[in-house]
Amino acid sequence: MNKQSLKDFDPVIANAIKNEINRQESGLEMIPSENFVSIAALEALGSVVTNKYSEGYPGKRYYGGCEHIDTIEQTAIDRAKELFGAEHVNIQPLSGAPMNVAVYFGLLEPGDTILGMDLSHGGHLTHGHPVTHMAKIFNFIRYKTNQEGNIDLDNLQEMANTHKPKMILVGYSAYSRDIDYENIKRIADSVGAITMADVSHIGGLIAGGEMNNPVPLFDVVTTTTHKTLRGARGGMIMCKEKYAKKIDKAVFPGLQGGPHENNIAASAVAFKEAQEPAFKEYCKQIKKNAKALEIVFKEKEYKIMFGGTSNHLLLIDVTPKGITGKEAQQALDKAGITINKNMIPDDPRRPMDPSGIRLGTPALTTRGMKEKEMEQIAHMIDEVIMNHQNDEILEKIKQQTEALAKQFPLYPELQV
Ligand code: DSN
pLDDT tens across 148-162, in order? Predict the structure, then answer.
């Protein structure tokens, strides 16, 4: 076995990691699906647990030597059950896309109809976008938000009556409002549909008590573990006990092989962190920070989709400011502020150069930033957008970014 340190043995990778630490440390991370794990979670993620194969589930494995792996996976499951009030938890999906695919295959037959939100209105690729393999196998019908940015429940009921879906799917990746799960369940029940919510973006906010929790009501709820939940990269399926066997079989052996137990260990650590009172405060602050951004952007007459935000993110049409989403992303990158270009509802532009930008507060809130910093950052973003072709101004903002980031150190333990 190679006994040299990473730095000595593989300076290419060691340097890339060091540069990535510096990039995260010195920039302002505002992609709403990103976050920073704790040092304790990082320790679990980078542990020898990665060496172990463990097909099967706790107490029922196909390989020997899984006694400690069982402790890790069962602890993660028990903590998740407690956080969300779930009857059954499968923590093995390798990430968000396979997690949703496992649910479709576990509970539906090829050709079955699923009602899911249109991607440009805030939905997700895995909710039936025509470019995905799933769209060739299942019959996805896409609903949209209305002019006011709400999900029109009367329209959803009509669509349910017309299409008789086997599943109604809610939960979004670029939608900034909460969801009325009770009324969606009522609509699903009226046509005998299974209810599924993909709360990947807002899982942490739900665990922290800051957004409606679909778990007690819905048949199946999926979430990634690495966004607002602040765990390692992975997916999790929560369901009613009556679907437990089907879901477990769909994940393994239906779709995946050996689970990534080091990721599961890190998420177990994150779930313990989420059980602490400080996590509730964190979730409150995420929302306050998003509101603080909204206030400044509204003052500056930005076109905010869905009328504003009730969660951690904002979707903004930047074209009235004379810039596209792609140009805004590039200019903000130069200023050290990381966001992503994004489609807006029924966007006339293309996905690689859309009209909007999507930005959020979970990562900056993890650093300890509050409303005051959000106001400053919103002004900086506006200055970048209004001067996106002026490299001197972009350089000036970059210096402001670095000065601000420095006041909120992220991983001092990892500095070399
Ligand atoms: N990539 C995630 C996001 O940014 O929302 C979801 O797939």
Answer: 889 999 999 999 999
